[in-house]
Amino acid sequence: MKKLLYKVAGLMLIALPLAMTSCSDDYMEEINTDNTKTPEINPNAQLTTALLQTYGDFGMMDAYRCYVTGFTQYFAGGWNVSNYAGAVHADNDMMRPIWDELYSVAIKNLVDAIDKTADKPNLNAILRIHKVYLMSVLTDTYGDVPYFEAGRASVTATPKYDAQKDIYYDFFEELDKCIKQFDASKDLVTGDVSVFNGDVKSWMVYANSLRLRYAMRVSEVDKAKGQEEFEKAVNSGIGFIDSNAKNAYIRYIDGPFTLYDGARALDFRVNALGEMLYGQDSDSPTFVCATFFNMMKNTNDPRLYRICRHYLNPKRSAVKADDDWNVDVTDEVVAYENSPEGDLGEGKSYACNIGAAWWHNWVSAPSNDKIPTLEKLVQNYPEVGFDQSNYNARMMRPFLSIKFEKAECPGILMTAAEVSFLLAEAKVKGWNVTGTAEDYYKKGIREAMEMMNSYYNIPLITEQEITDYIAAQTLGTGEKAIENINTQAWIHHMMNPAEGWANLRRSGYPVLEDRYKYDRWPNDFTYDDENLTTPVRLKYPNLEAKYNKANYEAAIEKLGGTDDWHHRVWWDIAEDHVK
Amino acid sequence: MSWGPKGDTNTMLYFDGVERPFYLYKNNTSGFFRTGLTAQNTAIISANSGKTGMRFSFTDMRNKDILPNTHMSRDNFNLRVNTSLAAFDFDFTANYTREDVKNRPALGDSQSNVGKNLMTLANSYNQEWLKNYQTSAGEYQPWNGNDQYNKNPYWDLYKNSNKSNKDIFRFTAKAVWNASKHFKVQGTLGTDMNNMTFEDYIARTTPGTAAGQLQLSTFKNRTYNAEILGLYNNYWGDIDFNGTIGGNLFRVDNKTTIITGTSQQLDDIIAIMNYTEQNVQEESYKKQINSIFGSASLGYKHIYYLEGTIRGDKSSTLPRGNNTYVYPSISASWVFSEYLQKKDVLTYGKLRASWARVGSDTDPYMLAPSYSTGKYSYGGGYVIGMINGSVMTNANLKPTMTSSFELGLEMKLFNNRMGIDFTYYNQNSTDQIIRLASSSASGYSYRLINAGKIQNRGVELSINGRAVQAGDFAWDLGLNFSKNNNKVIELVDGMDYFEIEKATWCNVSVGAEVGKNFGSIVGPDFVRTDDGKLVINASTGLPEVDSKLKTLGNASWDWTGGFYSTFTYKNFRLSAAFDVKVGADLYSMSMRSAYDTGKAMETLTGREEWYQSEEARLAANMNLDEWYAAGNVKGYVVPGVIKNADGTYRENDIAINPENFWRSAAKNAPGMFVYDNSYVKCREITFGYTFSQKNLGKYIKGLTLSFVARNPFIVWKNIPNIDPDSGYNTSGMGLEYGSLPSRRSYGFNVNLKF
After folding, report:
1. Are residues B370 and A37, on separate chains, in Cβ contact within 8 Å?
2. Within 13 Å of residue B513, how many CA atoms lie on the same side as its CB?
3. Does residue A536 sit in helix, strand or coil?
4. Using CB atoms, which residue from A13, A37, A103 is nearest to B440?
5. Cβ–Cβ gap B444/A104 under 8 Å
6. Which of A16-20, A49-53, B113-117 has the highest mean pLDDT?
7. Residue A2 confidence (pLDDT)
8. Partner-chain residue, chosen from A21, A48, A526, that has the shortest CB–CB distance to B382
9. DSSP state, residue B175
10. Which of A299, A500, B189, B582, CA to CA, is 20 to 30 A from B488?
11. What is the pLDDT of residue B452?
12. What does the pLDDT read at residue B730?
């Protein structure tokens, strides 16, 4: 009996551990499978994410707001744009989001999806076109950046920085190949949240138009290449975005603001540029910069009070751009401004100067009875404090109209107006393009205004206003023509600030205000850059010096030894004009 | 903000429409807190009958923290039954714990960190005023210009809420078959089941979450363990032998479900269906390790011992081919005191040496990339999908292998009145599986790799003994010392640093730097001359900034130690314990904030002069440039030098508003707020009395009363204003921001036995 027990025990001791460790590799792999995730995905879903991130990433849009919209002098006066762009204050945590967010979400997923769609030519081409688009935002922002090796941690975790020239040269090849690759009889693209909704023909036209943009971008530094690529695209017979019906944009949906938590959870469903400009809290609205305001005002631009509005908004929603509590008092404020009492004098406006916050260069609020709506609101809602805490003074500053800040505003990729301005400039440069520069220029202005009418739910710019404005424009010739064209392009790019900034640097126009002529506000902001001229790139994330050391140092070497944001990127050689 | 001129008796109109004087409120924040209270009661019943024993215990703990409207309770039930049947022994335990927590405090730079939010209040702002946290409509009462980063702490504790409930079940069953005098077989089954729900409610109109949010998280965590063990022991003459062989199966299966409701519809209904959008996020964590192991130990004359072990593991988290790893150990010891004739000085002495290798695995699902769908739905048939996570997976992972060598000496002296224990250890990991921070341009913020070498070595020494024994009086003393160096010797790709923790928005991180102990504090600094002086910009009077990253300090302790002392006289006992920690640095965001907002004493230097100068300037109707040109500006002259055209330096003489300097320092020179965090702290003082049996009557078997003071005082510290124990979050070494200090507590213990 006892012997038998020993045998049983002995067997158990040998058998049980063996049984335990004999668990097959298959079984172990089964355990190591995350049932809440999937090992394969339809790459269309990655396309959706990458497209939506373009304007849907709240964190990235913060860098647009704080730096790009200030450098371009579209907006000024909000705390954020004044603290960063206005004070020429380089804060690494604010400069890095464009880099961090795009590389770690869109570029990573696009690279992965491109690798996996060799058998889906249409989807593959769309993925590659959008990668070109986002990479152009990255290289235009930072200069030389990882491109060929980017987003491939499985191959290298230390991607080398490619010369911007090589990147742009590859854009042309990529766009060429993509256009040739499209075949409407092949795969159906289901993840396209752009307005094209997978339509192959539209994507070809859009890709061909992007070639115009990029050809013009390199045309200052690399004239021959610019002209060659431009003419190739124009004469390819593919066509380009020549009417607003062909515009490229991303469709966003209506919903509450996503804020930083949303960005962290990759919630890119609403237009976060609009959301960011509306402000992440009820006290961070966007004001139109005096440069922009005066430019429109002095030219009787009918867009002036479509873009600029005066609001009384102490109680505005922090959930979404609300029409209810952003009480529009534009007409009354403008009437007051035009009255002797409110007139600031020739050439002066209530708009915020570059570098100044709205509470600087103090303007007093008119007495309540001058703004009847204010008086009524104060009477009806005394607890809200419409005339308290300087809300009535703030009202005097032209805000960006909340019509541009709605969650469902389109995310602009490329438009007919932009193409028209590119063609006009090509013509001025004497390139082989049919038509006249004057016609393209005026067509562009019309398209810009009509697009604003149809996308932003503004009080419509009337046909009469458009005709009158265009009639008053003369293109001029030579340098003046280049200035006029790019000034119009600048106005038009307001809701595509990345392109607005790039085209401004490339062309050197419009003539903006000299930052040196305006005050510093050292009690409110930190001025840590000797050089107050507007930076022409953003600095790299400083941890690159630690994580991607050799490549980062090589890139810094090319910048002259320091990560200087006054050092121009490769294509930026035209003189910047300020007055 | 506490900048600006001196406070006076002028009144100001505040957010809630009340006019109040503008002056300094001293000890402003203390009024927010209350005295905490902890009560713990334990009852134990045990019974034995023959070979069967039973023990049941119940513990109830209730705690009210120093924050108002917070609460915690924990109840624990524990049952153990053991019995024997023929050659078999059985032992069962069942344990159930229930824990309820209301309003867990938020840490770090959370918008709800009460400590941080109170600390950043202006000195002229009485925290009492914040009690008007809501409007008549029950909405958030704006009080600080809608700064969403500093929420009203009263709103956070009274309007918002978080609650967690945790049920923990633990069962173990053990059966031992005593097959013979020398051999037994033991089987053990154990499980740990842990269910927790966490409800986090953020009311509508809360800044930063104005739409309102409710998050319900459910954690279902299970751990199973099964083990079978054969044990053999025997001796032959002077030789002892012990051998074991066994197998173990370990499995973890955790599931987390987070349901988030956004956009609250009706106020005050805290239910997920009251939200216009709900989304669900699921996470899983599963892994299994199967092991076999054996050991053999030999002893000779109770003087020499030699032991060897070997273990093989197979882990589900590693790839085929690399998922099984075997590791041995060997150790020897020598009781050298056995050779001594007289043992009244050296009573016992043992020298030991060991070498071991240990293999380890990693987290599950790290071998191949996976994809997930976004938490949110775009509608219209579109799917938001992406590569899951920010860590680059690795199909070729190998197990981490750590080898360690240890040497120890154990001695008892003077007939056990004094004990000395000394250990030296040196541990080297090669191919350590490491989650290495990476360039995001690679697409991933982290990658999991077998990389580099990590070394961990140090010494530990403890000495304790009875210093005095005179009749009924005794004095016991003890002290311990340890020094540890934990550093990365080598990384990959020429990297010399990786970030472990980050102080968001301060450009400061804490990480591992090659060749240095873990915990380098890294950030930018002002431009300095070779001898460390600030270089001042001749046009602004402010220091030049340099965005290059520098090492500003190190958060590892040079050494740590402690000592205790106990006096016993008859039934009285008095003891005290102290902690000593030396040499670690701390980046104090609290101090940074104190300087940034003008609350630190040092920020007063030059302030009054500046405001007088400004008054004079306004009276003279000049602008600042003119005032400078006239040489009339007074204020703070930053200690530093100005570079001359010929490359030499001159002393700075430009007076500025001190506010401008300190705010620039807060942004650009975090090193100015890195402090030596060394301290000596009294951890505990206990005074107790044990009643002698004869005073207790026949029903009571024992009674001890004691008074306990925990964290009663800090003996010495270097860092101003901050409790050196403060932490940024649960893992953040080297960082601190508005952390609530460790609580000082006084308690009374009654221990009664029947």
Report:
1. yes
2. 18
3. coil
4. A103
5. yes
6. A49-53
7. 55
8. A48
9. E
10. B582
11. 75
12. 53
| Chain A contact present for B539, CB below 8 A | yes
What are the residues facing B355 on neighbouring strands?
B330, B405
Strands B213-236 and B183-202: antiparallel
Q: Which two tokens stand for residue B264?
A: 């609250």
Instruction: Name the burial class of residue A308, with classes exposed (0-12), middle (13-18) and buried (19+) by CB atoms within 10 angstroms of its CB.
Output: buried
CA atoms within 13 A on the CB side of A308: 31
* Pair of tokens at residue B19: 């006019």
Which of A20, A31, A522 is facing B286, going by the closest CB pair?
Answer: A31
Residue of B nearest to A7 (CA): B179
Q: How far is CA B144 from the centre of its chain?
A: 31
ipTM over 0.85: yes
Q: Are B63 and B70 in contact (CB under 8 A)?
A: no
A-proximal residues of B, 699-728, CB under 8 Å: none
What gap in Å lies between CA B312 and CA A22, rounded to an integer? 12
Residue A443 sits at φ, ψ, to 5 deg, of -65, -40
CA distances from B46 to B83, B217, B698, B700 (A): 14, 39, 18, 15
- The distance of A338 to chain B (nearest Cα, Å) reads 30
E strand or H helix that includes residue A532: none
C-alpha distances (whole Å) from B275 to each of A260, B30, B259, B310, B517 are 20, 37, 11, 57, 49
A contacts of B373 (beta carbons < 8 Å): 45
Contacts of B413 (CB under 8 A, 6+ apart): B345, B346, B347, B419, B420, B465
Helix-strand-coil split of chain A, %, nearest 5 = 55, 5, 40
CA B668 to chain centroid, in Å, comes to 28
Residues B368, B423 contacting (CB under 8 angstroms)? no
Distance, in Å, from the CA atom of B589 to the CA atom of B571, rounded to the nearest integer, reads 48
Asked if B504 reaches chain A (Cβ–Cβ under 8 Å), the answer is yes
Paired residues of A29 in beta bridges: none
Instruction: Name the E strands within A276-362.
Output: 308-309, 311-312, 327-328
* Domain coordinates in residue numbering, chain A: 284-405
- Portion 121-160 of A in contact with B at CB < 8 A: 145-146, 150-154, 156-159
In angstroms, the CA A234 to CA A56 distance is 32
CB-nearest to A92 from B148, B507, B657 is B507
Q: What one-character DSSP code corresponds to residue A403?
A: G
B438-455 residue pLDDT tens: 999 999 999 999 887 889
B254 at A interface, C-beta within 8 A: no
pLDDT digits (tens, 9 = 90+) for B670-713: 999 999 989 999 999 999 998 887 777 777 778 889 999 988 88
Between chains, do A530 and B247 touch, taking CB under 8 Å as contact? Answer: no
